[in-house]
Structure formats: structure tokens, C-alpha cells
């Protein structure tokens, strides 16, 4: 049998008597009293025929984060008091991801750009302490993305927090406002904001002391207004960022 992850990823729920580690707090939540940790070869199984590419990318990001993130419990002693609970903790070996019967497997980008009244971000996530597999189901791929984000928030490095089962639904949206940073920082912002389920990026592209947007009808705006020729957003850059943002749940 392969060893457990050396950093003993475990639930970081603190629930009623402690501070919650989930953001935003799911509309429905139930917890147990058993510590849980991840298997060293933890896998995510996708039970959807012909899944869209951006859902596959989201699952890949979750898998990478779970194996590389070193976030620790934010308490004095970094949860050293939980060391004993880890020894007998139940091991979760996999997460099965799927849509409810009859649900269409549209891309996350397509679900993100639907009107607010038609957008469905709900999901159900269950992590029992008496089975080796957790389950995540939703009506849409956007809901699955939200559920994956919640699953990422459950775990942290080095110790375990009591928890048995989670049922979560989240339907509200959040907005963020950003002054235009360098191009890579903008992509980083789009990548990291969905981790707390932000869904609207309000981009003020000329809030700084420059005009970095390339406008075809008025080329001198960026040619003379940008900090430099390398610090300009081209039409292709904007298209890529918008597409990437849609795939990451931003509208």
C-alpha cells in the first residue's frame, strides 16, 4: 500500500465552534467528527462522456493544487495538537465528478456567459468518513467548478480537522475591481480569484498613469500613452484574457 501524503493533507473545516475555512460559506453544510486525509495517489475521476476542455483544465488545476499547496492551519502551533487524530484518520483515495442525469455538458465558458437568471452554480459535495471516494455532482459544469473550488478549500498541510460529510450549494456571485497590472499579473488575478468564487472582474484598463490598450482607430493612444511598447494590451491579448476569464468563471 502506498504511503499517505507526507504532509498529511486533511480537512481544514472548523465549523460551528471554530472559524470556517470555506469562502463563501455554502448555503447548506453538515459536518461530522472524524479526521480525514488524502491518499498519496489521490485521483479525480470524471464521469462525463466527452467533457469540455475547460472542465478538464479545471480538474487538472485542482489536482495540481492538492499535491503542491503548502497552506497550513492558521492557528497557534499550526495544528500540532491534531497529530494524534491524523494517525487514525480515514483516507480518501478519490473524488468522482459528474453531472445530474439529463444535464448538458456545456463548457464552463458557455455557462459563465449565460444570463444571471439562467446561470446555475449549485453543486453537492459529499466527503464521507466511511468510504474511500468523495463525490461531486452538479447541474452544470460551472457548478462543478464551484464544487472543485470548495473541495480545494477543505484541505491543508500538516494536520487534520474533525469533519465527516459536507453537502454544499452556492448560487450567489461576487464582483472584483482591478486596476490594470502587467499582463501576466492580470492572468494571475483571473486564475486565483475563482478560488474564493469571485465571478465578475471589473477591469479599469486606464486607471493607472498610462493608456495601455491598443485601439485600432486611434493607434497613437497606446503608442504615446503607454509606459512602453512592451506594456500594451493588443486586441489578441484582450481576446485571450476574456476567453481565459470565461473559462475560469468570470463574466
TrEMBL record:
Its EC number is 3.2.1.52. Residues 22-154 form the Beta-hexosaminidase eukaryotic type N-terminal domain. Gene3D superfamilies: Chitobiase/beta-hexosaminidase domain 2-like, Glycosidases. Coiled coil: none annotated. Keywords: Glycoprotein, Glycosidase, Hydrolase, Signal. Pfam families: Glyco_hydro_20 (PF00728), Glycohydro_20b2 (PF14845). One of its GO terms (biological process) is glycosaminoglycan metabolic process. One of its GO terms (cellular component) is membrane. Residues 196-247 form the Glycoside hydrolase family 20 catalytic domain. It catalyses: Hydrolysis of terminal non-reducing N-acetyl-D-hexosamine residues in N-acetyl-beta-D-hexosaminides. One of its GO terms (molecular function) is beta-N-acetylhexosaminidase activity. Residues 1-21 form the signal peptide. PANTHER family: BETA-HEXOSAMINIDASE, BETA-N-ACETYLHEXOSAMINIDASE. Belongs to the glycosyl hydrolase 20 family. This is beta-N-acetylhexosaminidase. It comes from Trametes pubescens. The lineage of its organism: Eukaryota, Fungi, Dikarya, Basidiomycota, Agaricomycotina.
Amino acid at each position: 500500500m502506498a504511503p499517505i501524503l507526507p504532509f498529511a493533507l486533511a480537512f481544514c473545516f472548523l465549523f460551528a465552534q471554530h472559524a470556517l475555512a470555506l469562502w463563501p460559506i455554502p448555503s447548506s453544510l453538515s459536518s461530522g467528527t472524524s479526521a480525514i486525509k488524502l491518499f498519496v495517489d489521490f485521483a479525480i475521476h470524471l464521469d462525463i462522456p466527452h467533457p469540455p476542455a475547460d472542465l478538464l483544465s479545471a480538474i487538472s488545476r485542482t489536482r495540481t493544487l492538492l499535491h503542491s499547496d503548502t497552506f497550513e492551519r492558521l492557528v497557534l502551533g499550526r495544528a500540532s495538537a491534531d497529530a494524534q487524530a491524523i494517525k487514525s484518520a480515514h483516507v480518501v483515495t478519490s473524488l468522482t465528478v459528474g453531472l445530474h442525469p439529463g444535464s448538458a455538458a456545456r463548457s464552463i465558458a458557455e455557462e459563465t456567459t449565460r444570463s444571471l437568471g439562467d446561470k446555475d452554480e449549485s453543486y453537492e459535495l459529499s466527503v464521507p468518513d466511511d468510504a474511500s471516494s468523495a463525490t461531486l455532482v452538479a447541474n452544470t459544469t460551472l457548478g462543478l467548478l464551484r464544487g472543485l473550488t470548495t473541495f480545494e478549500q477543505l484541505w491543508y498541510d500538516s494536520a487534520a480537522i474533525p469533519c465527516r460529510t459536507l453537502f454544499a450549494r452556492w448560487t450567489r456571485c461576487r464582483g472584483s475591481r482591478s486596476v490594470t497590472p502587467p499582463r501576466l499579473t492580470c492572468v494571475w488575478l483571473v486564475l486565483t480569484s475563482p478560488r474564493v468564487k469571485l465571478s465578475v472582474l471589473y477591469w479599469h484598463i486606464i486607471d493607472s498613469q498610462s493608456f495601455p490598450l491598443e485601439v485600432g482607430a486611434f493607434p497613437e493612444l497606446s503608442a504615446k500613452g503607454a509606459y512602453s511598447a512592451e506594456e500594451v494590451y493588443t486586441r489578441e491579448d484582450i481576446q485571450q484574457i476574456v476567453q481565459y476569464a470565461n473559462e475560469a468563471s468570470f463574466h
